[in-house]
Design a protein that fits this description.
The complex is a heterodimer of chains A (296) and B (307).
Chain A lengths: L24 H18 L1 H4 L37 H37 L1 H16 L2 H12 L3 H12 L1 H14 L3 H8 L4 H37 L11 H9 L6 H29 L7
Helix pairs in contact in A: 1-3, 1-11, 3-4, 3-6, 3-7, 3-9, 5-6, 6-9, 7-9, 8-9, 9-10, 9-11, 10-11
Chain B lengths: L2 H28 L4 H4 L6 H10 L6 H13 L13 H7 L1 H28 L4 H15 L2 H15 L12 H30 L2 H8 L4 H38 L5 H10 L3 H29 L1 H6 L1
Classes of the chains: A mainly alpha (296), B mainly alpha (307).
Amino acid sequence: MTGPGAQRAPIGGGPAGRRRRLWTPGVVVALLGLATVAGWAVAPRLATSANPVRSRLGENFRPIVGLPGGSLAHPLGTDSLGRDVFARIVHGARPSLLVGGTAVVLAGLLGIAAGLVAGYLGRGWDLVLMGAADIQLGLPFLLLAITLAAIFGPGLGTAIVALVLTGWVPYARLTRAELLSMREQLFVQAAQAIGCSSARVMLRHVLPNLGPTLAVIATFSFAQMIIMESALSFLGLGIQPPWPSWGSMLSDARSYLMTAWWAGVFPGVAIVGTVLAVNVVGERLREILDPKLRGL
Amino acid sequence: MSPRYLVVKLAQALFIVWGVSTVVFVAVRLSGDPVALLVSDTAGAEEVARLRRAYGFDRSLPVQYATFLGSVAHGDFGESIGFNLAALPVALARLPATLTLAVGALVVAVGIGVPAGLLAAVRRNSLWDRVAMGAALLGQSTPTFWSGLLAILVFAAWWRLLPAAGGESWRHLVLPACTLGWFSAAKVSRVLRSAVLEVTTADFVRTAHAKGLPGAAVFLRHVLPNALISVVALLAIELQLLLGGAIVTETVFAYPGMGRLVIQAVGTRDYPLVQAIVLVFSVLLVLVNLIVELLYPWLDPRIARER
């Protein structure tokens, strides 16, 4: 017994079936793109044989293939230290996806737990957790990340901690709100009546009904976290040199943009492409799973 | 607005500032020796001991916490290591530049977002609607540090229309404000579009049509004012995001605001200055929120009655 299945939106069927198709061309392209980037993150050496960190000063500022001076050896050109831009983009996929993915999972778990506790155990917990959520208003992600970087030093760990500490709030708010409305419903009251413990009611009856909405939030928040991670790296507070990340590549390129525009353009294409793909999938998920969430 | 509402909102604002200060205090304590953050690396043992006493770090935790809250309330964040001056005035000197940038970006967001959203709503499902929504999705996925680089490349490097960096004149403001505001413009247009579409189906709009008002009058008098309420609510959130986004944008354009200064301060390990700027930003965000919370019941009397 996992609650009333009839309440969920029918997937790929019913009168609105055509509108709720998952596999639109946009989604297929987005997923193919994401699979490519994920492949880069898992096995970068399959995509490029060039070394992303070794500098060759004689090879610096080679333009992209097709421009005078460019060659297939460096399809997207080289940077100020002669490092292959394409290789650095491929190797930069790992920190972006790793930080974003880890932070989404941890923030989701933390937020759901906080929301369940606040919504189910009542007033006292409620006040504490929602107060903690309010504090976010005065200490948003970037400010927290800057503070932590100043105190503990910059790095991937600092980035993840800042993302998790600011990312849990939407999950907690949603879980709590849905829980409060679900508590009045028959299937929850029935479960309580036959003697289920609070934990069992939450985990077996309430949480599965929240799944679709949480999945939508997680998708959008993953996209946001990729942007935030690269913003931190751009500011020099994320992954440290010489290891490549998309954000720090852009920050390097800023100082020689006039000489080598390609070094400032293609890492950004990688960020926007990845984030756009995640957002497209999220948008589609939202339309299919939870039409009520439009405008969130 | 009832006095009670005012008091509750003021208390909430104070609570947030207290909460942020507490988070900062706890983080500093977790780092090990807090004095190490407050002195330069070259300071001798005597200087360290003197500061330890001066800041009360040799006393019990509750006393330290009370001392810390007291100094925050007085705006005393210690001496900037890089500037050898009290940290707060150094931070505040850069505040006007950051505010100018954020307000400039807000103007851009409203100036582009409102017309685009209205057009998208009025010409629903047209090509224009699709273009506006596509641009909004793209805007949501584009980080400002990249659109800023592209803007520098096109408008400063190739076309030589505007300066790429600095903050001396209004011309220096154009690129950063547009870069920062374009992101919000996309969101404003989306929210306005769906708000207009939602209000259009409301009972009072049907009544207005039924009593024979011309379409334009219904739109201007009944639909638009109600739809704009949700835009105002969004702008409050946006202004807060813009203030945060200013940190990144200022770094891209070497714009002399608080955001660029705080990043430089992290780089030079100038912790007192970082702390001062973070708390100034924080108070700013809370103030913006407070002002909007107080304006909101006036804009939408339905809410005042609910609360």
